[in-house]
Write a structure and sequence with these properties.
single chain; 623 residues; alpha+beta; 29 strands; 30% helix; globular; disordered C terminus
């Protein structure tokens, strides 16, 4: 590359490549050149490692213009190469970055923590779409402020709102925010009367991560606080100067647990037909030893996030912070709770040893008995853990589940994950009835599911409700399938030739529940043991199971047959669920008696629990 071109690049304003899937920036995470470069995604901060100079189709690394972005086809990643022999990139009409002559695009895999960037065959998924900051900012010229709600199909306003968020992230914290945000609509303003305080905390990194692969969605290492960052105000987070950079690098600050990033394609945006809040309202900040100045556009609870590494405790000082209403089960008295509710932040936080809930302060003011409310959340978490097979012989994953009320979430009236999100249009997390609502058992049940190993093959939205049915039975002695008439409906459909694959989510759930009812001596223990056995698999066996759906069908068949002491092949045949000959031979070698094919749990008194006489009557028209 000529010296003239190189001089031009150095003088050009750097650009930023932003993933439309994560709102994070293409970044040199580690290394300094082609021999050791590790390129992935990081929070948009504007640092040199995120800067790219555009020279035609070439992407020159801002930290050293003698290097440029190139594809590495040996491992399907992107890396740094010598700018003497650069590779051009096309930013195509689908917003993908495609290297010259290639048929793959830069792709952000869906597995958490979503910091990797790979090369993958081209598709139209959001995880292959990229913005450049320069293009986004061009959309802001003369644009009026967005008015909420605005139509989901208004992609111009959406892009402008994204541009405002990114520009604010990249602006020096000592300068005024370039763009005002609609905080009043959501998440809400902090009272001007709320005192700005200095508070000291201890960050506990003495235990990190999980002791093993639990093969479920486990809680992350988040440390909650009763502190709230006011929007568009400078807050200082001070770590000891003596703390090593490596240890400081294990600590991040998140402002707000409202982590859902809304896009025009988000089901709750496209389905509702509008954005009712800003697409992004949560911020994250990396920390270094000493004083860290942070500013959040929208404000929110101050949360500390820890990543694996050394184990330690460290003191932190937080300046210019506001206290938010806070309740701790077993510690906060009714009188103290009444005083907490006077604090002027839009959201309150309630915490136990098992769960953290984030609730609007207006909803929190309606909580008359927070001990009862949070005791119920603890109760259902404990029930879920027991149903998953955890007990005194095998402890559940460490950490606390987070449950967050939001004005608009990406999908559903609620969705699982960490945190689990609940749309306030439908559910008030501060209501005593919500912990005892099916939605709480269902969404948190998703976090406990062994989806990749068997639960997905038998129906993700079906098998999750094994948890819901267990809790419903324990709390109320009720069975939703019975109330809905699903046992009879499914049995009749199977009699008429319906297969498992043709059944709806309730009918597929009936298949497993018929086995449960047919062997009352085992009852719910059969599913607990199935989950325990799945966790006990070696990493190699678990990977083999996850990669083969037939093995997953076989896995459940073999485990349940052994647990109940009967070969279940006849009922699998009745439901049209194919089991491999190898699995059948393994169970046959045990000499187990074969269970009847019809295990239907019909509600009529003249139908036997194991169904063969009932089936004969049904076929003869005697029902």
């Amino acid at each position: 590359m000529s010296g003239e071109a190189e001089t031009k690049q150095k003088a050009d304003k750097p650009d930023f490549l932003i993933s439309q899937s994560t709102f994070a920036s293409l970044t040199l995470l580690k290394g300094s050149g082609p021999s050791d470069a590790d390129i992935g995604l990081a929070n948009c901060s504007g640092r040199t490692e995120q800067q790219w100079l555009r020279d035609g189709n070439y992407l020159i690394y801002g930290g050293n213009p003698s290097y440029c972005l190139v594809p590495n086809y040996s491992n399907n990643t992107v890396t740094l190469g010598d700018s003497a022999s650069p590779v051009g990139w096309t930013h195509d009409e689908a917003s993908r970055f495609v290297p010259e002559g290639g048929n793959k695009a830069m792709d952000v895999p869906w597995d958490e923590p979503r910091t990797r960037v790979v090369l993958y065959p081209m598709h139209d998924g959001t995880n292959q779409k990229w913005w450049t900051l320069s293009e986004l900012e061009a959309d802001l010229d003369g644009a009026p402020e967005a008015q909420y709600p605005f139509p989901a199909k208004d992609e111009t306003t959406y892009r402008q709102e994204v541009a405002r968020t990114l520009s604010n992230w990249l602006a020096p914290s000592t300068d005024p925010l370039p763009h005002a945000r609609d905080v009043a609509t959501f998440p809400g303003l902090v009272s001007t009367d709320a005192p700005r305080l200095t508070r000291n905390l201890v960050l506990d990194l003495s235990v990190l991560g999980q002791s093993r692969d639990f093969r479920m969605t486990v809680p992350q290492d988040w440390q909650a606080t009763n502190l709230y960052v006011p929007p568009d105000e400078m807050v200082e987070v001070v770590l000891p100067d003596s703390l090593s950079s490596e240890r400081a690098g294990q600590i991040q600050v998140r402002v707000s647990a409202h982590v859902d990033m809304l896009q025009p394609t988000s089901p709750n945006v496209s389905g509702r037909g509008e954005f009712v809040r800003m697409p992004v309202v949560s911020d994250t900040f990396d920390l270094t030893p000493g004083v860290n100045k942070i500013r959040s556009q929208c404000g929110g609870h101050l949360i500390f996030i820890f990543s694996p590494g050394e184990n330690f405790l460290v003191d932190v000082e937080v300046k210019n912070i506001v206290e938010a209403p806070y309740f701790r089960l077993g510690e906060t008295t009714p009188g103290q709770w009444a005083e907490e509710l006077k604090k002027g932040t839009p959201y309150a936080l309630l915490e136990t040893d098992l769960v953290v809930t984030l609730i609007s302060t207006s909803d929190a003011q309606g909580i008359s008995d927070p001990d009862k409310l949070m005791g119920r959340y603890d109760e259902i978490i404990s029930m879920l853990s027991y149903a998953a097979g955890f007990d005194e012989t095998e402890h559940p994953p460490r950490g606390k589940f987070w449950l967050v009320n939001d004005k608009q979430i990406t999908a559903g009236s609620a969705h699982a994950g960490f945190p689990a999100m609940f749309d306030r249009t439908y559910y008030n997390m501060g209501s005593e009835t919500t912990p005892y609502d099916w939605v709480s058992w269902h969404e948190l049940g998703h976090n406990y599911q062994q989806i990749a190993y068997w639960a997905g093959a038998y129906g993700t939205e079906s098998t999750v409700n094994l948890y819901s049915l267990y809790i419903q039975w324990q709390l109320f002695g009720e069975d939703r399938l019975e109330k809905q008439g699903d046992y009879d409906r499914a049995a009749n459909h199977v009699d008429a030739g319906m297969t498992f694959a043709e059944g709806d989510v309730w009918e597929q759930l009936v298949f497993l529940m018929e086995i449960k009812w047919a062997f009352p001596d085992q009852d719910w223990e059969m599913f607990r043991q199935l989950r325990k056995n799945t966790r006990a698999l070696s990493a190699e066996d678990a990977q083999a199971l996850a990669s083969d759906v037939q093995k997953q069908y076989d896995h459940v068949y073999k485990n349940l047959s052994k647990i109940v002491g009967s070969d279940l092949i006849n009922t699998y045949d009745r439901w049209g669920l194919m089991i491999s000959q190898e699995a059948q031979d393994e169970i046959a070698a045990l000499g187990l008696p074969k269970a009847p094919g019809d295990l239907s749990h019909r509600t009529k008194e003249d139908v036997f629990i194991c169904g063969e006489p009932a089936l004969e009557k049904l076929r003869a028209g005697q029902r």
